[in-house]
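Researcher: We are triaging several targets before committing to wet-lab work. For this one, the compound of interest is zinc ion. I'm pasting the protein sequence and the ligand SMILES. What I need is the predicted three-dimensional arrangement of the protein with the ligand bound, expressed as structure tokens, so it can go straight into our comparison scripts without reformatting.
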Amino acid sequence: MPPAEPLRLLILGAHPDDAEFHAGGLVSLYRQRGHLVKMVSLSNGAAGHHALAAEVLAAIRRGEAANSAAVVGAASEVWDYPDGELQPTLELRRRVIREIRGFRPDLLLTHRTNDYHPDHRAAGQVVQDASFMVRVPRIVPEVPALQRDPVVAFMSDPFTKPSPLKADVVLDVTAQVDTIVAMLASHRSQVFEWLPWLEGILDRVPGDDQGRRTWLRGWFAAKVRQRADRCRAELIAAYGEARGRRIGFAEVYEISEYGSPLDAAARERLFGFVFQ
Ligand SMILES: [Zn+2]
């Protein structure tokens, strides 16, 4: 049974697979409980391939994002800004403001602005630029302003300068890994083609579906295992000594100072069910 008042989770990532890579566990947990999730890619993803033409790839990636969202019953949108050249323009800020006001998220996820990828930085910047403006009625006046900011959180990245990601929220997503992998497997052009090509391991990707799924699980696990190791102390504090030490897969979020604060009541509302 869906909750009477479902929570609303909006993810504004730079690329069509960012939500799954960085927040797939939370997406899965929210959907399991009947909460609403919308994953938006600000760019069209058209630069993410070594062989396919941009316009062909853009159409493929839109379909892949829809397939991935369908795994958990989330909503999905891929916007048309050029991949690799995303800019935090006033025009994009206005569109982001309209999106946030329209969806009315309780929780909004994006990237930090010290990420390696210029598109991730641009997405993080434009969401932060919109964070306060969503409450200002004179800005984008055709859409009613919000009374309250959502809680805004940054998805994890491994970068340390000028500061590493602060582990304000740590989630054990071990039980969600199969769902995350199923979602990622929908992004075929990425996880079975482009990213292995970038890493020089394309020849290791199996040809059959079952073999690919197994390979993807191992590849993804190797990438994210360090997340749990980096925040072991926080996991132990959140889940207790015994479970905290055993957690192999974690998602980590830093709360933005520009949205609503994650006070005790908000933490309980947005994440409390995850710890039960
Ligand atoms: Zn990305």
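Researcher: Any quick observations?
Model: The pocket of zinc ion is lined by residues 14-15, 18, 117, 120 (CB under 6 Å).
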